[in-house]
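Hi P.,

Sorry for the delay on this. The queue was packed all week, but I finally got your sequence through. Input first:
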Amino acid sequence: LYLCATILLRFVATCRQVVDPTRLQILKTGFDHAELKHPGFWTIETRRFRGYHSWMVGARSGVRWFKPALFIRNSLLQELEPKEFEALLLHEISHLELRHLTRRIGAALIGLILLAAVAGMSTLTFTLILPRQYVWVSVVALGSCFLGIHLWVMHWLARSQVFEADANAVIYLEADFESWRTGLTKLAQLNGPRAVAAAAER
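Then the structure:
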């Protein structure tokens, strides 16, 4: 799904390539600064703010339809000043530079493998020590507990990667801290009260 998202997003949403010279230069400079290859740059024509404001999709070494592409809500371009946009862009680029998605996928796969192992071992163990009618109930209960722990770990990993990307953008990619702060505040206000509280934590 992630690899095909370049096609899917352009199919289900109204998308246009970024043509504004100022924004396009900011986008290219950000990727140059991180020494990353330029992806395709697209805007999604919507005024809706809740949810993600940008997506980086496609295969890292893909070509044509599977070439990496950055999709940005057009409202993000309209509401943020150029320096604020640049600072938040460097945060997104930091996720790529630090290979956060690869680490997250790896953690998810490890969790699934461990879940399968726990299910198999618990089924065998419970079959030997419990009456038959209690085996599957016990397996499901144990599996649910493990799955809950795994989801918590994934949530913690995602949040820690957000903070790591913030630090990388400001310290190593030299994003302007004040522009990053004001841009994040604007974005949080547009996304609602919960987003404002999350931004305050950062």
